[in-house]
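Reopening this one. Same input as before:
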Amino acid sequence: MGHIKNLTPHPITVIDESNNIIQTIASDGLVRLKSTTVDAGFTVDDCKISKTVFGEPEGLPEYEFGQFYIVSQLVKSALPDREDLLVPAEVVRDENGNIIGCRSFGI
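Same output, byte for byte:
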């Protein structure tokens, strides 16, 4: 059916409905959006306020049939027409609220 590469900076753990680990997908590169910080033109309580402007992705391979890439939600949202981009979905948290894995990937 296809192959998944993890282009986030950390491993992604896939967990089943019984909270058993199905697999851990190691990081295999990194995709980020180019960003620039600009002055918003005002201050609040004497603190300068800025705005981050996001641009094109860096490190994202071209589309290849059957190849899927796990990326951040920010990258996926910036490229809504790329159906090969996946994000962790059905996130599983531990008793302290820390993310420990996901049950599926969203497109």
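So the earlier flakiness isn't reproducible anymore. For the record, The beta strands are 3-6, 12-15, 21-25, 32-44, 47-58, 67-70, 85-93, 99-106.
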